[in-house]
Amino acid sequence: MPELPEVETIKRGLEKNIVGKTIADFGSDWKKNINKPLAEYKKIVKGLKIEAIKRRAKMLILDLSKGWDILIHLKLTGQLVYGSKTKCLVGGHPIEEGYDCLPNKFTHASFTFTDKSHLYFNDIRKFGWLRLYKDNELAEEFEKMKLGIEPLSKEFTLDYLKQIFKKKPNKKIKQFLMDQTIIAGLGNIYSDEVCFYAKVRPNRLVKDLKEKEIKLIYQGIKKILQASIKAQGTTFSNYRNAEGEAGAYSKQLKVYGRYGEKCKVCGTEIKRIKIGGRTSSYCLKCQK
Ligand SMILES: [Zn+2]
Question: Which three-class secondary structure state does DSSP give residue 108?
């Protein structure tokens, strides 16, 4: 699933291309994953302008005129594809060759803008969704989701992290980092990487972490997320046709998905364990 850096990358890529455009039409073959009957959805969004594109946790928000918003979750395999006569963007990345910016059999929703460009929502596994809300309804939805703090915000300080650690002393650090109601945006990839950075094993209990380790976890969250955004995220799935420059952070991963390979720091074989049903990779020697 795309995590904070990937969704942020998509946001930044699309920002330059769709903000300011007016929706001329909307289509979907996907009743379950839009929250209103298609005819009603279509009637509302036609003629609305995209005023901004925002991110909250792992979700995107199309901020529309007249107080409407579309909340988008890509889930496991959702993809936003922007196409015009001169440009093609997949997941916010320019794709030079080998990618068709036309709808395909995995396209389940599409926006047509008044300048004839398009935004397609492709999803192989169909877990993703596009929900249309009024501003106040969107605020209510966010309330219901009980989303945690944005880790790249100014409010997320070392003291804040220490406070929230105190509230969940018996959680394993990996589960703590992945809990969207505590910190929003980290999933399996970046929680593994943060644990490696802090030299702590993913199954350590929060209450047993030392002061020095807490500092490193804090530092790791900020540094790793920022470095990944800079590299345009991690390409972790092969559903893309062309990788191009996309997702260069894959090369910088230290442990995630590297089970059985050698640790880049000490050469020890990377191990894996299941924590809360998720596989976590770590180095037995570098992480205590
Ligand atoms: Zn190691």
Answer: strand
Q: How remote is the CA of residue 111 from the centroid of ligand 1, in Å?
A: 47
Strand partners for 109: 28, 121
**In this structure, which amino acid lies at residue 171?**
K
CA geometry: angle 261, 184, 277, nearest 5 deg: 50
- Which residues are part of the catalytic machinery? 2-3, 58, 278
- 3 close to 187: Cβ distance less than 8 angstroms: yes
User: pLDDT category, 97, cuts 50, 70, 90?
Assistant: low
| Whole-number Cα distances in Å, 284 to 39, 168, 203, 273 | 56, 25, 12, 11
Q: What pLDDT is stored for residue 103 in this prediction?
A: 84
CA of 271 to the centre of ligand 1 (A): 10
Q: Give the 3-state secondary structure of 136-196.
A: HHHHHHHHHHCCCECCCCCCCCHHHHHHHHHHCCCCEHHHHHHCCCCECCCCHHHHHHHHH
- What mean pLDDT value characterizes the chain? 91
Q: What is the reported pTM?
A: 0.91
The stretch 220-227 carries a mean pLDDT of 97
- Contacts of residue 86, Cβ cutoff 8 Å, sequence gap at least 6: none
The answer to whether residue 236 scores a pLDDT higher than 60 is no
Give alpha helix (H) positions in the chain: 4-18, 38-45, 135-145, 158-167, 173-178, 188-197, 211-230
